[in-house]
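Page header: ASSEMBLY MODEL / three components / 507 residues total.
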Amino acid sequence: MLLFDQGPIETTNYMILGYAVIFGVMLIYLVSLYLRRRRLKQDLQVFEEIDKKGQ
Amino acid sequence: MRAFWRALWAIVWKDLAAEVRSRELLSSMLVFALLVILVFDFALVLDVKARHSVTAGVLWVTFAFAGTLGLNRSMAQEKDRGCMDGLLLAPVDRSAIYFGKAIGNLFFMFIVEAVVLPVYSLLYNTNLFKPGLLLVVLLGSVGYVAVGTLLSAMAVQTRTRDVLLPILLFPLVIPVLIAAVNASTAFLQGWELAEISPWINLLLGYDVIFIAGAFMVFDYIVEE
Amino acid sequence: MQPKPRTLQILDLVTVLFFLAAVGMVFFYAPLEAVMGQVQRVFYFHVATAWVGMLGFLVAAIAGVAYLVKQDRKWDIVGLSAVEISLVFFFIAIVSGSIWAKPSWGTWWTWEPRLTTAAIVELVYAAYLLLRQGLEDPERRARFGAVYAILGFISVPLTFISIRLFRTIHPVVVGSGAAAFDMSPAMLQTFLFSLWTFSLVFADLLWHRIRLGRLAERVEALKLKIND
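Prediction written out in full:
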C-alpha cells in the first residue's frame, strides 16, 4: 500500500483535540460532583441550625 | 378470567362510546395527520422520484405524530375527569385497564390509518393497499401503542405531561419505526421475501417483548 | 455527614494511580500506528469511555429491577447515579469517536450502528432525567424512573439490531476504510489496561455519586421536617 511507504498520516492535532475532550469532560464532571457536594453540605449545616433553634 | 375480559371490554367500550359522542380525539388526530402529509409535501417538494423513496417514511412519521396526539388525549381524559381513580378503585385486575386502554388506542390508530392510506394513495396516485403493507401497519401500530399507552399513563402524572410523552416515547420506539419504514418500503417496491422477513421478525419480536414488559410493569405506574 | 470510608479512600488512590499509568501507556508505551498516526491513540480511551457508558447502562437497569422488587430508596439513588455517569461517558465516547472518524473516514459523523445507538442512549437518558424532573413525589419519581430505565434497557438492543440490519442492506461508503487496524501486543496491552482502569473509574465515580445522592436525600428530609 502506498500509505505504508509514506509513513503515518499527520494527525497529531486530532489526537490532542480528542484527549482534550476526554480529559476536559471528565474534569468538568468531577468539578460538578465536588460543587454539588459542597452546596449540599452548606445546606445541611443551615438546616441543622434551624432545626436546633426550632426545638 | 371471565371478570378480566369483561373489565377489559368494558373499558374499550367506554372509550369508544365516549368518542362517538364527543369525537374530539379522532377529529384532532385526523386533521393533524392530514396536515403532516401536507407539510411534508411542501417541505420535501414531493416530485415523482422523491416520492417513490420517501413514501414509507412520510407515512410512519404521520402515524407516529398523530399517534402521540391520541395517546396523550386519551390518558388526559381519564385523569381530568377522575376516571382513572375510579378505574383503580374498581375491583378489576390492573392489567385489564392497561389492555383496555391499549386496545382503545389501537382502534383509534387504525381509524387514522384507514383514512390516511387512501388519501395518500389518491393524492399521489399510488396504490398503498397491498396485503404486505397492511400487515406492517398492523404490527407497527401494535408495538407503538403497546409502549405508547404505558408511557402516556406515566406522562399524564407529571407536571410537564403534554410535552413529555413524545420525548419519552420516540427514543424507545425507534426499532419499530426503522423496521416498519424498511418493511413498508420493501413491500411497496416489491422486494424479495428473504429481504423483508428480518424486518417482520423484528416487528413481531418488539411487539411480543413490549406487550409482555408493559404487562409486567403497568402495576407500578398506576399504583397510588 | 459520615466521614469518607476507608475502602473508598483506597479506591480513590488506586484509581488515580491506574489512571496515570494508563495515560502513560497510551502516550509513551503504545507504538505509533502505521497508517493513521497519532489520532489512533484516541482509540484506547474512546473505547474505555464507551465501556463505562455501557456499565452505567447495565447498572441502571439492574437498579431499576431491584427498586421495583425491594421498594428501597437506596436502589433509586444507585439507578440515578448510574444513568448520570452513563450519560457523561457516552457523551465523551461519541465526541471522541467523531474526532477519530474525521481523519480516518473523512467525516465527523457516520450512522454507524454503535455510534448511533450510543446517541440514542443519550436521548433515552435525557428523557429519563426530564421524566424525573416532572415528578415531585420522591416515591413516584423513583418508581417511574425504574420503569423507564428498564424499558430503555429492553429497547436499546433492538435499536442496535435494527440499525445494524439497516446498514447491511444499505451499505454506506465510508472513505478508505482506514479505521481498521491490527493491534500489536503493546497496543493490545494498552487497550486492555485502559479498560481495567476505566472499570475502576466507573466504580469510584459511582460510589461518590451515590454518596452525593444520599446527602441530597438527607438535606431533603431535613427541609421537609423544618417546613412541617
